[in-house]
User: Which sequence fits this backbone?
């Protein structure tokens, strides 16, 4: 095929493209993508397509015999020109409630050639189905909050020493709004020991390094500098760089829920959106109880939070799937005895999972005591406690210790 027209046995499939009746679109002839600008119908559905563009989307322009197969270049109602391309995760992705630490979603561009990103003309897949191929490539960044540079280092004799510094770039927390790819400069790092960062850092993929880090030497997102010192010209530190490695650690902490009263996803037994969830084993009671109290020691820095839920098991509910219930919280309780802890629930439908009293954020090394109480419950024979942890900064997650739960009659 070298002509500007292509004969097809049936023009009907080409008369609709992305759900719109049209004479323009894209087609795949064997392995070459072309565009057509007009359709001429003949007898019995046969006709011709006027070709106005060839070797599109990175395909190769070749001669085609009349027997080559041709088909619309779309799938499930969406042009493959939008799908078979390079996709970027939007900068606002982690602010979206669908964000997740373990997977991510891609959105194809609806803005060209005409904007179909909203309203009645919004372009979507026609149905839910799976499709794909074996040529998909993914570039991946590795985000971290801790790093341990492991090197075999020998400092022979007195007067020899080695010091190291590391240069990193910023990352974006799963529940935060930090800007990625910002140079963080050099800072001291101990070899063969774990270094904790106060903000998330990242090792970028090579494509991101070359396009986003043009001001850094060799476009590198991670640089380790080691300085050797000696007071004896016959002795020098020795480092094995062939067997070196970096151990990166990332805290699985996000911030998926803004309002625990209105958003009940954490009340469910499965599919909780939090990256960090702690659930106890079921605790059985010899005697039924009507009150539950949980006490936790926690380090909760600015921007971090945790909520506590309970699930009760009753003699008459063995066949009913129980949901988790948030503890009332100080913002939904009255302090009637003046001890500083809420003890009377204002509205049971507005439980927030907070503690009985407000506790100020901690410093990095301090812990505070948190108390959670639920009174006047229906009699229960067993219970399970669930704690969900969140943070807008992955490098300052909530830390828990000294967990205690007491059931009272």
Assistant:
């Amino acid at each position: 095929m070298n002509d500007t027209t292509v004969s097809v046995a049936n023009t009907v499939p080409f008369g609709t493209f992305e759900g719109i009746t049209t004479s323009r679109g894209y087609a795949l002839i064997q392995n070459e993508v072309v565009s057509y600008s007009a359709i001429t119908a003949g007898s019995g559905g046969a006709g011709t397509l006027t070709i106005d563009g060839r070797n599109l989307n990175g395909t190769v322009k070749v001669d085609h015999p009349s027997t080559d197969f041709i088909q619309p270049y779309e799938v499930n109602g969406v042009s493959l020109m939008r799908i078979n391309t390079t996709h970027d995760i939007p900068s606002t992705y982690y602010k979206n409630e669908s964000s997740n630490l373990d997977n991510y979603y891609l959105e194809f561009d609806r803005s060209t050639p005409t904007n179909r990103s909203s309203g009645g003309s919004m372009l979507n897949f026609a149905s839910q189905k799976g499709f794909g191929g074996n040529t998909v490539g993914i570039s991946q960044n590795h985000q971290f909050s801790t790093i341990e540079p492991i090197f075999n280092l020998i400092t022979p004799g007195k007067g020899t020493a080695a010091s190291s510094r590391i240069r990193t770039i910023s990352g974006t927390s799963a529940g935060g709004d930090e800007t990625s790819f910002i140079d963080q400069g050099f800072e001291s790092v101990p070899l063969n020991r774990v270094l904790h960062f106060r903000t998330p850092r990242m090792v970028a993929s090579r494509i991101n390094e070359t396009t986003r880090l043009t001001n850094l030497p060799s476009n590198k997102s991670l640089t380790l500098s080691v300085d050797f010192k000696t007071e004896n010209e016959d002795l020098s530190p020795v480092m094995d760089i062939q067997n070196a490695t970096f151990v990166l650690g990332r805290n699985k902490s996000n911030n998926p829920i803004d309002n625990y009263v209105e958003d009940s996803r954490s009340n469910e037994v499965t599919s909780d959106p939090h990256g960090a969830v702690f659930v106890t084993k079921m605790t059985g009671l010899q005697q039924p109880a009507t009150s539950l109290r949980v006490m936790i020691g926690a380090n909760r820095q600015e921007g971090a939070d945790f909520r506590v839920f309970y699930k009760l098991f009753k003699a008459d509910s063995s066949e009913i799937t129980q949901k988790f219930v948030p503890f009332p919280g100080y913002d939904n309780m009255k302090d009637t005895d003046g001890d500083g802890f809420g003890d009377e629930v204002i509205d049971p439908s507005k439980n927030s999972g907070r503690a009985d009293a407000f506790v100020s954020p901690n410093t990095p090394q301090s812990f505070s005591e948190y108390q959670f109480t639920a009174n006047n419950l229906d009699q229960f024979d067993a219970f399970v406690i669930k704690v969900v942890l969140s943070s807008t900064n992955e490098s300052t997650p909530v830390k828990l210790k000294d967990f205690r739960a007491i059931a009272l009659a």
Q: What stands out?
A: The two ends are 86 Å apart (CA to CA).
